[in-house]
Amino acid sequence: MNHPSRLFAVGCVLLALAVALGAFGAHGLKPMLVTTGRAETFETAVKYHFYHALGLLALAMWAKNTPVQQQKILMRAGWILLAGVGIFAGSLYLLCIGQITWLGAITPLGGVLMIVGWLYAAWQLVRH
What we know:
- By secondary structure, the protein is mainly alpha-helical.
- The chain has one domain (4-127).
- It has 5 helices and no strands.
- Helix 1 runs antiparallel to helix 3 (39-64) and helix 3 (39-64) runs antiparallel to helix 4 (68-98).
């Protein structure tokens, strides 16, 4: 799963999910999210999900046009970002929908992975 086109495809699927979840939150879940006070949290999850899905597309396009060593670095950064999105946005979605409050404790781990993914890409690309 280390080809840029696969990372691009994953980014596309993440974008589709972000749009679907955003629409679901704005329409189907809105009354529940407002009642529980989680509308802003859900919106934060969708925003970070969406932004990082776009970032995956950018990394995949960049990786496709780079030497193999840099391509590997960009792909690794992309998978770190994907893990970050899954943990960050995923835990917030579950927190909002399932009211599983302990998930809030793992959300920062996802944020750290997203930061690490971007810094890893930048550091490695500057190095090479």
